[in-house]
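Board notes (copied after class):
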Amino acid sequence: MKKNPLSKIIIAIITLLIIGGILYQIPPIHDRFAWRLDEVRVIIKGYLSPPEKIAFAPAQQQIEAIVSATIAALNTATPTITSTPTASLPTTPLPTATVTPKPTPLPNKVALSGVRYMNQHGLWNYCAPANLAMALSFWGWNGDRLDTGKWLKPYDKDKNVMPYEMEAYVKEQTKLSAIVRVGGSIDLIKTFVANGFPVLVEKGAWIHDISGVKSWMGHYVVVTGYDEVKNVFITQDSYFSPDFEVAYDDFIRGWRSFNYTYIMIYPPEKEATIKLILADDWDEKTNYLNAAQFASDEIYQTEGVDQFFSWYNRATNLEELQDYASAAQAYDEAFKIYNQLPEDRTIRPYRILWYETGPYFAYFYVYRYYDVLSLADTAVNAALDEPALEESFYWRAMAKNALGDRDGAIADFRESLKYHPDFEPTLYQLKLLGVEP
């Protein structure tokens, strides 16, 4: 009996798939084509489950009442962040932002040399390792992005490296010093650069992701110069190019989405100059107080996604000051604005919790455990590829444990360690639970 032509086609397809599967396991072939398959999977998932349609929806509080109370507290002649005082916050009006002292007059143009340019391409999400390596190279460090990367990203597909991890690398792996501060300004960066200090900045960028869609994501750059005539910063951008110029207005818009965070790397003997430039922002608590005031002011000056970031920044600074109740209120308002934004991937910053995890702290410490679960699920579901988000799994585990789901918590803690094998908070919690990692 002759076989049906359709049967022959099916057998041929199955045979090809089997052969292809076997060949795919050969390391040289796998290394060459794995990222292509990942790209296809990402595109398909992005089409079937668009991440921009995901809403952040805290549910344990009556958000409208909270927002009204928060706006009433802010709507004063001089807004302050003390609407809900705690032991950790002053009860007197906050100081207004101080004028940064300038040890030397600022020239119209500065372009520092000495940074060895490194791109992030060819490796998975290597923005942070490349930029940290560039910033270190200015001070004579001889390593490269692979040296920083194997320490910063123990799991190669980790989606984000936090500023505190960059700071820790400098302090633990080099002879240099480093500090992380928030609430920076254009004048502050120019002052540092004019005094011979490159500035490592964390900012948002609207660039094409692996699915080919332009969307918001976190990005680091090293600022090595500025030009007052052109109104631009000169950056060493690992994604684009060396000496990449960014207009001040565009720089501010991207920087706002990360609370104007910057990392200063410097030789210990130059610390006195850093202190002089930072003035009262050298003190970390004062820095968060000043940044919270600035974010509160920006709420009145922004709209749309920029206002979302302004509320989010206010909340993050309050969270860092351990005023968790006020922080939770501000995050509620930020998410309310987010959910009103057009369901457009070029507008909605759906990756926000991958980079800025303050809501987990705020909601957890005001006992809003279901909101922590909801936010963690949202962050994980927004990943079109592997959800390598150790912080989200950690906080989901914390919420599950608080709600009595011990087994679920242990599973999520272990998932967190999959993406960051030596993640100290997770190791500590598993020890408390009396189980092995």
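Comment from the instructor: The chain has two domains: 5-48, 60-322. Confidence is low (pLDDT under 50) at residues 30-47, 61-67, 76-102.
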